[in-house]
Design a protein that fits this description.
Radius of gyration: 29 Å
Largest sheet: 3 strands, antiparallel
Helix content: 40-55%
Order of helices and strands: HEEHEHEHHE
Strand content: 15-25%
Number of strands: 5
Shape: flat
Strand order of the largest sheet: 1-2-5
Distance between the termini: 62 Å
Structural class: alpha+beta
Length: 181
């Protein structure tokens, strides 16, 4: 690194800018902490307090004096645990939901196997020369399709294993404000 010739005035300005930067960074950190606290409070009120109050009152929707409306909305979440993928796929197959499964098969070819790769493109899995290939199989379910499936099955009262599909159902508050013209 080369030595810079900076006069005292420039060093003083640089020092002030560094202090200002540190001050702004501290302010941002503090504001981010405050936002996190507010988000936790918002979540608690939206998913616990208001749903409990509406439930206690025996209503699921309410119009407020300012014209906005409040209603409960149920959200469905699901994620298949990585260590339970095979079980989840088997459950879907056994319960006639195999159409949700997306399968991807890949065959790793090494140097000198180009002819074999081309042959495989034309003729999959029935020829003896494919016997020694390593098959990498990956099965997935599209997350949005899984969410829709879980919602549908839950609303129909069907049993879907929570542990296989990481099901989480949340009731939250939705407030719609009247449109201003």
């Amino acid at each position: 690194m080369s030595k810079l010739n900076i006069d005292n005035q420039k060093i003083s300005e640089l020092s002030k800018m560094c202090s200002e930067l540190r001050s702004i960074q501290s302010e941002i950190d503090e504001l981010e902490k405050q936002v996190e606290i507010k988000k936790k409070a918002e979540r608690r009120i939206a998913t616990e307090v208001i749903p409990a109050m509406l439930s206690e009152a025996g209503v699921s929707e309410l119009k407020l004096s300012d014209g906005s409306s409040v209603r409960l909305k149920t959200n469905y979440f699901s994620r298949i645990p990585k260590d339970r993928v095979d079980e989840a796929m088997n459950w879907l197959r056994e319960n006639n939901f195999a159409d949700l499964i997306r399968s991807e098969l890949s065959f790793p070819f090494t140097k000198g196997q180009d002819v074999l790769a081309q042959s495989l493109e034309k003729f999959i899995k029935t020829n003896e020369k494919f016997r020694d290939l390593i098959l990498n199989k990956k099965e997935t379910v599209n997350p949005m399709q899984l969410k829709a499936f879980i919602k549908e099955q839950t609303q129909l009262g069907k049993d879907v294993p929570d542990d296989l599909f990481g099901i989480y159902v949340e009731t939250t508050t939705e407030i719609k404000t009247p449109e201003t013209k």
